[in-house]
Amino acid sequence: MEIIGAAVAFIVGTAGGSFLNVCIYRLPRGMSIITPRSHCFHCDTELGTADLVPLLSYLWLRGLCRYCGVRISGRYFLVELVTGLAFAALYLHHRGAIFDFVSAALFAGVLIPVFFIDLEYTLIPAELTAAGMLIGVGSDLLKLLVGQGQPLEWLVPGTTWLIQIPASLVGLCLGGAVFASIVVLGRVLFGREAMGGGDVHLAAAIGAKLGPGYAFLTFFLLAVGLGALIGVLLIALRLRSRQDYIPFGPFMVVSAFLLLFWGEALTRLIRQCYPWP
Ligand SMILES: [Zn+2]
Predict the structure, then answer these.
(1) Secondary structure class of 123 (helix, strand, coil)
(2) How far is the CA of 66 from the centre of ligand 1 (A)?
(3) How much is the pLDDT for 27?
């Protein structure tokens, strides 16, 4: 049964990936993601249903436009495949817990276009980060409403007032605050932009999804570690110079994905390496 569910999740994911391709092309150009229908970017012919079957159309047409023969970026195929695989893996990971799966899959649907857009244009569209925050906070509030989740509790010092706050809201503020401080520090200490506003919004969205606990700390350490490692490698291999701006969003996306799948194991590992309280 589980394998059928995963197969369905894969197919839904590839169709979702097809839509994410539209987002990746149009959002950085300030175009609507709803209208008009998809066109070939080269000959402008409106694409028919047979051109829009996820994965298969690309393979069948061998990556060429049916109408003008222009080569279509392999990214289209890659995004559909990655989204399909992510959905199937998340389905299996949540063992059929539909609510958690849908929430994680939607969040993955935000992370994937952020990765590709930031990589190519070094910008993170606000539409995507806003959607991420909405998914993070919305799924948390829904869980609290049906009595499944656990809010954070805070005893106001010197009183008996116990304040309950949804973890996602605290995570959102924490994520935003931590990364906003890095932006300010970068400006003051180095006089340059270490990150952009899009990174701050993305951190807030990921904070909303992960909550403010050790999971977020683990995400942060992973993202910074990955960024430093790849940055040093790129400079050592002379693919980038010290002056080049290397987008940080893709590292945040990869780390957030790792946390979506192996959050508990990774957090445990980090806590063993650094025995915090
Ligand atoms: Zn064409």
Answers:
(1) coil
(2) 7
(3) 96
